[in-house]
Amino acid sequence: MRYDEMIRKVQILAHLPDRESAQSAIRSVLQTLAERLPAGLADHLAAQLPHDAAAHIRATTESVTSEGRPREVGEPFDLTAFAGRVAVRAETTEDTALEYCAVVLEVLDAAVSPEEMRKLTDALPADIRELSPAGRATEPPS
Q1: 3-state SS of the chain?
Q2: Entry pTM
């Protein structure tokens, strides 16, 4: 999948007014995913994405803190923290950030191999996993 196609799909699925808003949603979710996933898995995910999308992941995994140390990846945070980080990056509410997460994960599901998507969802805690198409498919009936 090309990056333009990813942007277009996110814009349509999230009902965003313009391309820039879709790019912001993609960037915010991918950077936050990169913080949550183990480094090797984040790198494998980036390898299957278009260059511009992969750059969002690599910018996070290769960044350093203000003290000059490599930024921590594979951080063990939950859905609330995940949504909060996406909301700050996208300059939106946490509810809207959750919508962005679900949409971007849906687009990722179509963009990467099923094996890679399974590894990605397996690496997430249950509350974040429920945002992905695979996680929603395995939810118990209410």
Answers
A1: CCHHHHHHHHHHHCCCCCHHHHHHHHHHHHHHHHHHCCHHHHHHHHHCCCHHHHHHHHHHHCCECCCCCECCCCCCCCHHHHHHHHHHHHCCCHHHHHHHHHHHHHHHHHHCCHHHHHHHHHCCCHHHHCCCHHHHHCCCCC
A2: 0.89
